[in-house]
Amino acid sequence: MGNYLARKRVASAELEELAKEIQRTENHINGLTRRQAFWQRLFSYFAFVISTAIAAVFYSDMPLYGYWIIIYLALPLILTYLLHSFGKRPIGHYYTWRIDRGRAALDVLIEKKQNILDNVRQTETYNVAKELLEKYGGSEMEPLPEEPHNTPKAVQSKGDVFDETSLNLSLLNKTRTPDNEDVHDVTMTAAGEDVSMCSTVTPCQSPPYRRPRTTRPFYPESKTSVDKILDYMCGDGITKRYALICQRCYTHNGMAHIDEADNIAYRCYKCDLFHQAKSAGSRTSLSD
């Protein structure tokens, strides 16, 4: 008995610690992804302001004739490209490196948790394994087979119940006599009262609709012209967004930016399925 309680306590303690560590790692990765998008967008605004200011100074001090017009028109584009190459791109590489490290640590934790759950399925009893799998297994784990019972009870389908009721009514009509006529009338009257009572019951009111909390917000359908111009200048817009579609229930989980689409991991708010980042596959194969 002592060994049984010790095994259960050790397995549950390890799974609890791993679940907390996995949650902290996922929060850290999501925080890095948000900071990457924030700093890249902020640097895009900064590059736009700097290039515009330099072009304005160039316009006010330099003569606008001949080849100076070409230089003036090309100067903002050249400055924006240089700032993007030497500023925004290194920021993206830095955060991608940190996110990849977090993904590698998360893969190790998930694999360790999976090994413990597999060991629980093979060594523990049905009740203990079911309790631990329901608490720590998540939706991606396969459920345990039902425990066999000594006297299984067959479950009747709706079609079987309907056929049995129709058969009883037909037999009752065939064997109806003046003696049991009153009984049949009472049965039909009671059934009619049940139907009338069911029809008078008011349906329960559905709870108020609440917008689901998705991993990324949905891109607004209607935007002003100023917003569209700013999105174009900063490298954002509907063409720069990827939809996060669940692989199991095909639920829309928001729109991720193109810079973070390959590095973002999320859980579906509807079926709770964990989706790893697209870049996690190549990293895992290299680590193996």
Automatic annotation (TrEMBL):
Keyword Transmembrane recorded: yes
Keywords: Coiled coil, Endoplasmic reticulum, Membrane, Metal-binding, Transmembrane, Transmembrane helix, Zinc, Zinc-finger
InterPro entries referenced in this protein's UniProt entry, alphabetically: Lnp (IPR040115), Lunapark_Znf (IPR019273)
Single Gene Ontology MF annotation: zinc ion binding
Biological process according to GO: endoplasmic reticulum tubular network maintenance; positive regulation of endoplasmic reticulum tubular network organization
GO cellular component assignments: endoplasmic reticulum tubular network membrane
Membrane protein topology class: Multi-pass membrane protein
Lunapark zinc ribbon domain mapped to chain residues: 226-272
Coiled-coil intervals, chain numbering: 1-35
Segments crossing the lipid bilayer: 42-59, 65-83
Domain of life: Eukaryota
One Pfam entry name: Zn_ribbon_10
Location(s), subcellular: Endoplasmic reticulum membrane
Function statement: Plays a role in determining ER morphology.
Family, as annotated: Belongs to the lunapark family.
Comment text on domains: The C4-type zinc finger motif is necessary both for its ER three-way tubular junction localization and formation.
Name of the protein in its database record: Endoplasmic reticulum junction formation protein lunapark
The organism of origin for this protein: Steinernema glaseri
